[in-house]
Structures are given as C-alpha cells and as structure tokens.
Design the sequence.
C-alpha cells in the first residue's frame, strides 16, 4: 500500500513540474496545414515550439494576438517583394512570436512566455497565399477546450480530425470505444481502442502488449467490414509510439521473451482493462490518456504481489520518455522488484515533454 | 430490403391487380387463387423490424431464458430483441465478425468471433456487457480473411464445439500470424498453414482445453445435434467438395478437405495434396447428405433439430438446415443403414415469402422458427424473420427410406392412391459428385433409373418403389408429379434427393 501511495506522489510531482514549461512539436505538413490544429498552454507558461517543415513547400509559423490572424496575414501580403527578406513577418504589434521561413525538412526552435491573459492566440503561416487556410489555435487557458468539431478557431477542413462520423451501429458512438479488427503491424488478433475521439492505441491480443498509439482519430473499418474482409482497419491520425522491443514485460530475465496467454478484458465506464498471463504471471493492464493526448499511462497490476523480478524493456529510439512508479531504470530497462502488486508506466511523447524526465 | 409482413402472398397480388381491374374481376381472380393449396395455408413468415442503423448481417442467434432473442452481427454488435415489446437493446459491441452465439443466462452469453471464443457478461446489471473473457483462443490465425470461426455448439455436458475455416488463395497471409506456421499446409486453393484450420474442435469444460476433434473441413458454417445428440456439420461446395455436404462428425475422423491433414497427429512431413486422390478418398468419411447444387441448395448453413414437439408442425425430431442463395430452408430426412447415417433432403418454406441468406436458425419457446439472414459475400439478404406454423398439416414427405430394392416414401397425410400408383408420375435419376481438388463437380455418371414397381400402402401414407438398379455412392434424385390427398391438399415439395452411401442388406 505504501508503494502505491509513493507511486501516486511521484505521479503528482511529475505533473507539478510539467506545468512550469512545455515543449510542443508543430509540423507543417502536406496540404497547407499544421499537424496540430490546436493545443493548450497555461498563462505565463514558458513554451518552446519545435517547428518542423515536413512539407515540400516553404512555410513559417507566426503566433498572433487574439483575433489578429487575418490582419497580420494581410499585412504580410502587402510586404510584396520585401517580404521574403523579412520572412513575411510584418512589423505589427499583433505578432507575438515568429519563426523564419523554413525550407522543406528544416527545423527551428522558438521559445516565448505565454501571455498572462487567457484567450485564443492564432498561429499561422504568413507566406503569401497560405495564411487563409494554414493556421491553428493556441489556447491559453486552464479550462477544457471546446469540441474540436465545432471549434471556429481552427480551419474547417480540420474539424474532421475528430472524425465525428455517424455511427455505423444501431447506437451512438461513445468513448472509450473498442473494436476487435484487423490492424496493420499487429498479429491478426488485434484490439483497437479509442480513449477519446483523438487518442487511440492498438493492443495485440495475440502477443499481449501495446503495439502502437496514435493521435488525431481512431480507426476506419469501412473496407474491412465490406467485401471479403481482407482489408485492414485504417488508422486515422498520426502514430506517435510504436513498440520496437516486442513483449516489453518479461519475467525473471530481461532478455527472455515470454510465453503469453490472453484472458480477455473488462470495461469500466467503457475503459478496457486487459487481462493476460506473462510466463504464468497474471497481469491486468489499463491504458489511459495523458492530458492533451501527450502520451499514455499504463497501469499494471498483479493478482498477487510478484515473487520474481519483472522487467519492462523499452527501446531508446522509440521517441518516448518513460517513467515508472516502481523500480529502477537502467539502459531503458526497468527492473521491477519482487513483491510488486502494481506499477504505473508513464509514456510521454519525447518532443512534448519537459526536460526533467530521466532515462535512456 | 423487404420487411413487410406477408400474411399471404395473395395479399400482394391483390394490391397489384387492384390498380388494373375492377372490383368484380378482382373478386373472381382471388377466389380462383384461393382454391389452390399453397404453403401459405400452413406457414407464415414475419420480417422483424430492425433498429435504425443496424446492418443486419446476422452471424448468430439464440434465446435467453427470459425470452429475449440475442443476435450478433457482422459489425461486431450483440443486440437483444424482446418479441413482446419489440424493443431492441445493445448487449455488447466491438467483436470481430461474430458468427455464433449461445445464451447462458439473461446476463451471459458465449460468442464465437474470429480470434476467439468469448464469454460475455453483464456483471453490474446495467443491461450492457462489461466482462469479455477469453474462453479459448488456442488456434491459429494466418490473418487470411477466409479463416472464419463457427460455433459454439454446446453439448449436454457443457462442452463446446467450434469449427475453423481454412484460408483462401484469394488472398495471402499476414506478416505476423498466430500459431505455428507450417508451409506444408500453404499450397492449394483453400489452405491450412496454422494449427487446426479446417478442423472441428471441442472445448472440454473439464480440462478447459481446446481439443482437436475432426479434420477435413473447408467452410463449415453450421453445427448442430440431432435428437440423439449426434454432431452434424455442414460444408460448402468448393475444392474437395463436389457439392455442399452435411457430415455426421465423430472424433478422429477425416472429412475430405485435404489441407487440414497436416495438423493430424503423426501425419508425415509432406504436403497432403501430394497424396493420391484414391488414397485420400479411402481415408475420408463421406457426407450423410449431399445437397445437389442448384437443384436444392448452393450453400447450406446451420442444421437445427426441430425440438418443438409439434409446435412447428409435423416435423418434430427432424433437422432443418438454412440455405444462403435460395429463399428456402432444407429439411433433412435421415436414417441409419448398416450402422451409418444417410438420408434425403427436401425443400422447406418455398413460397412462404422467406428471404434468402438463411444463415442462422433458432426455435423460440412457442415453436416459431427464427431466421437470421446474412448476405455477406453471398447473394443472401439481411434481417431477421420468424416462421410461424398456422396449425394445419400440409401434405409433405415425412420419410424416405432405403429398402433392399428401392425406396419407400412416407407422407404426412394419406394420399389419393389412384393418382399415386401411377408409375409415370415419378422420375428417378442417379448421379454422383466427384471427390477431387477442383472447385465443385458436375453431376457425374447421370442416368435415369427405371421403376419396376410402385405400390401404395393400404392407409395411403406410404409409396414404395422397386428400382431396376441401386448403387452405393450415388445421389438418388426423385421428381414427382402432382400428388394429392383425397381432400385436394397438394404435395408441397415434389423433389427429394437421397444420398446412398450404403446399400441395405
């Protein structure tokens, strides 16, 4: 029990630190758009934006004061021939922060302190012609965001990111939502779970571990459900984590791949807890979303406290920062001592994480 | 989708004619039609109204002890339907192509879905399932779309039979498979490259293990018991299936589809397709009934015992089986000859307004037969229907028994023996379907069989035929003219097909 309390404390302190500053990765992607339609930060927070141009055209990234997007965009157009040299950033009091014009496959970091006044601060590409469609919204707030589908602060074309699809079933879609279906990069016994309309993962019911997770939507089974069923479910969104180690949870020795046995799952307010055995150790695992879809917590609990050492193996190149409520990390492998009844792995997407997490 | 209530086919005609003719003419036509004895005098079909948004590709149906129907559908939903209140409710969701359901209680069901047999329970009494326990997933999956999983069928001891489809060369396999891959099972039109594809399996409730039970299946979309608890499994026309068959399945036997042999204990390390057909033919157990393709069926589905003790009409103790491509069921008339089961099949439900895609069958407590339709990858139809017996006995064939020199038919009612004793009213033909690797088989060695003698029993209920020749290994196809009772009731089905595996001594 003490261990659990300790785990919770660690968990809390992690968030306390996380509130002090934040790093957000924003990409310019094909189709005159940013990969993030919006994100939220807190007043006075120090923010570092890692801006990547993944498109095949030049783009910049300009943060403006509330309601100043269009006037800044129009001012940039009026710069004419002189615009290029000034990165199409007009000398306007409406500009909060701005990157240079980035050619494809380049990255720029910009840091600034978020205003103290809560509000919706647009970000936009002021390259001539882009600014009318290529923009997003930085919410400076501590409150929940409005539904994506009706958010007038983001481009209408991105409302679909939330995939407000009409239900294919005789009942409305509710989240969390789960489909056993054929998924790519998984054994044929796959379970796709949407924690929310924008955050999903694929659990392998054959191999009993998390295969990958993504943001931006769930899975489109249309092709799988029609025709002969050979088509796989299509992932809607962007994968931010993919397991590279296979069978991360190991018993006795960190380098021994286990025998696994899938036992099913239980739903609590629709959220699944998977049950499986790893080399005979009965495990329950619940995955939850971190705030703002920044990653996952994975709570592992055991039918009885473990009688042998367990290991949770990660790959240092998978783009994730790991924390655990229990155990010691060494070279990306967590040792979980005997007698553990429960531990929590927090997986945070590395780019969006603050600098204080350890490991690898 | 037609979802009308067909009280009577005539009602439909009536509406059409109403636009074209005067009332008086209509009256004459209606009267004229009404005189002819049709199946709608005996059975009526109701099409169940579906909840909005349901794609009713029905994979399984059963009744809960409280009288609610529980049905599962292709998009993974499990729904309940209360026949009295006509209310549909969600019970479970998110399943992978569920193709069978067995109700355990009003809060618990078993579902066979593509990756596993699952026990699904509502433990917090909110009407929706919250526990999905894997009963068994101890079989392979290559990820090929054709690896459907059928069942479960629960025996009196609680053991559960399931049947596993083979894969199709219409597609390959996934980079990751479940179970031990064996390349020797990979060749062929339909293949078994992971364990126990093409097998009927038995989940033993005592040992909690899934045991291999019988091999040699292709697409066994239907499991059922007869009145004696004997297991029957249907299959579909295709490679090694000259026409769609029904098998009496016993432990350890091989039922002819070749790929699955590689998972036989002690089978040599060879591609089983390299064995000579004669060898395979000698290893296999033949079907108890071959359903002549296009004559009576294209794709038979689930066999179901009429255990209604007469609530569904005169066929108690017989088995019905569903059919995908025709708007009919098929009724099975089996007998034991020399210790082996064989028998005949006859149509049921033609002209009742039944839809196609008759994939799943279940009787309710009142003796109505519920049909779950499916058109997934087939001609078929979607939806649910209920067939209700109206209480009168139609003239139909109750039995076709092999004799030492011919056959004897038994009818549900005494027939007019003057008409029935005319030999020109009957035509016997025999043919067989080849056992071979190519898809299906033509009718082979087709020949008319002359009738040496016809006799009608004194009570008018039996007609016996002495035939010029009887040969084992053939289907005997009997087509009849219009037989009647003295009261003018007409024989409902005038074609019947007997699969003769064993001669009577």
Sequence:
């Amino acid at each position: 029990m003490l261990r659990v309390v300790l785990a919770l404390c660690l968990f809390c302190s992690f968030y306390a630190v996380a509130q002090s500053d934040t790093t957000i990765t924003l990409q310019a992607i094909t189709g005159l758009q940013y990969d993030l339609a919006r994100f939220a930060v807190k007043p006075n927070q120090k923010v570092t934006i890692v801006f990547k141009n993944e498109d095949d055209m030049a783009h910049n990234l300009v943060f403006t004061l509330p309601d100043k997007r269009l006037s800044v965009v129009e001012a940039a157009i009026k710069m004419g021939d002189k615009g290029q040299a000034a990165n199409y950033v007009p000398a306007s009091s409406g500009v909060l922060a701005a990157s240079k014009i980035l050619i494809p496959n380049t990255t720029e970091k910009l840091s600034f302190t978020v205003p103290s006044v809560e509000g919706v601060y647009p970000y936009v590409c002021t390259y001539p012609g882009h600014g009318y469609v290529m923009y997003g919204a930085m919410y400076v707030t501590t409150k929940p965001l409005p539904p994506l589908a009706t958010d007038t602060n983001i481009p209408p074309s991105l409302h679909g990111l939330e995939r407000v699809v009409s239900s294919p079933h005789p009942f409305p879609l509710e989240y969390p939502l789960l489909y056993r279906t054929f998924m790519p990069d998984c054994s044929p016994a796959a379970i796709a779970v949407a924690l929310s309309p924008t955050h999903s993962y694929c659990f392998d019911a054959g191999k009993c571990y998390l295969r990958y997770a993504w943001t931006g939507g769930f899975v489109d089974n249309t092709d799988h459900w029609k025709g002969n069923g050979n088509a796989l479910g299509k992932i809607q969104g962007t994968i931010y984590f993919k397991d590279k180690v296979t069978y991360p949870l190991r018993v006795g020795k960190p380098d021994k791949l286990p025998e696994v046995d899938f036992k099913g799952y239980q739903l609590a307010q629709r959220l699944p807890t998977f049950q499986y055995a790893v080399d005979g150790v009965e495990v329950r695992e619940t995955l939850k979303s971190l705030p703002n879809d920044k990653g996952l917590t994975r709570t592992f609990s055991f039918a009885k406290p473990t009688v042998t050492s367990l290991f949770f193996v990660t790959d240092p190149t998978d783009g994730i920062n790991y924390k655990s409520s229990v155990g010691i990390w060494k070279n990306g492998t967590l040792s979980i001592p005997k007698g553990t009844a429960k531990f929590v792995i927090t997986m945070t997407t590395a780019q969006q994480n603050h600098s204080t997490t350890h490991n690898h | 989708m037609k979802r009308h209530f067909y009280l009577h086919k005539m009602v439909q005609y009536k509406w059409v004619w109403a636009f074209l003719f005067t009332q008086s003419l209509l009256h004459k036509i209606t009267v004229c039609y009404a005189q002819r004895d049709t199946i709608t005098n005996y059975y009526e079909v109701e099409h169940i109204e579906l909840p909005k948004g349901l794609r009713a590709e029905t994979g399984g149906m059963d009744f809960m002890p409280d009288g609610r129907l529980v049905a599962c559908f292709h998009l993974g939903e499990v729904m309940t339907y209360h026949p009295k209140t006509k209310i549909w409710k969600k019970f479970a969701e998110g399943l992978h192509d569920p193709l069978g359901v067995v109700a355990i209680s009003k809060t618990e069901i078993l579902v066979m879905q593509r990756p596993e047999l699952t026990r699904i329970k509502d433990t917090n009494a909110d009407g929706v399932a919250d526990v999905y326990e894997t009963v068994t997933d101890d079989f392979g999956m290559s990820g090929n779309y054709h690896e459907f999983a059928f069942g479960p069928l629960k025996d009196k001891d609680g053991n559960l039979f399931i049947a596993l489809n083979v894969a199709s060369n219409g597609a390959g396999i996934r980079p990751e498979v479940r179970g031990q891959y064996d390349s020797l099972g990979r060749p062929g039109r339909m293949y078994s490259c992971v364990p126990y594809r093409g097998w009927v399996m038995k989940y033993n409730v005592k040992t909690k293990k899934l045991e291999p039970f019988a091999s040699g299946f292709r697409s066994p979309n239907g499991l059922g018991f007869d009145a004696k608890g004997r297991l029957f499994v249907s299959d579909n026309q295709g490679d090694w299936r000259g026409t769609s068959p029904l098998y009496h399945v016993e432990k350890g036997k091989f039922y002819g589809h070749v790929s699955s042999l590689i998972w036989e204990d002690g089978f040599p390390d060879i591609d089983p397709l390299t064995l000579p057909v004669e060898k395979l033919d000698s290893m296999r157990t033949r079907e108890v009934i071959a359903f002549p393709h296009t004559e009576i069926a294209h794709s038979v589905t689930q066999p179901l015992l009429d255990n209604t003790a007469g609530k569904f009409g005169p066929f108690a103790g017989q088995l019905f089986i569903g059919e995908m491509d025709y708007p009919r069921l098929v009724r099975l008339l089996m007998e034991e000859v020399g210790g082996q089961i064989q028998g005949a099949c006859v149509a049921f439900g033609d002209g009742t307004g039944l839809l196609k895609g008759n994939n799943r069958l279940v009787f309710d407590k009142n003796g109505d037969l519920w049909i779950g339709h499916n058109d997934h990858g087939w001609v078929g139809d979607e939806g649910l229907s209920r067939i209700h017996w109206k209480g009168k006995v139609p003239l139909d064939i109750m039995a076709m028994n092999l004799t030492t020199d011919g056959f004897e038919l038994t009818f549900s009612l005494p027939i007019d023996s003057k008409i029935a004793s005319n030999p020109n009213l009957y035509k016997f033909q025999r043919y067989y379907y080849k056992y071979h690797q190519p898809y299906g088989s033509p009718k082979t060695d087709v020949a008319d069989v002359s009738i040496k003698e016809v006799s009608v029993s004194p009570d008018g209920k039996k007609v016996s035929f002495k035939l010029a020749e009887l040969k084992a290994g053939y289907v005997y196809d009997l087509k009849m003219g219009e037989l009647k009772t003295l009261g003018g009731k007409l024989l409902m089905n005038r074609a019947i097909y007997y699969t003769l595996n064993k001669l009577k001594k």
User: Anything to note?
Assistant: Residues 9-20 of chain B form the longest helix (12 residues).
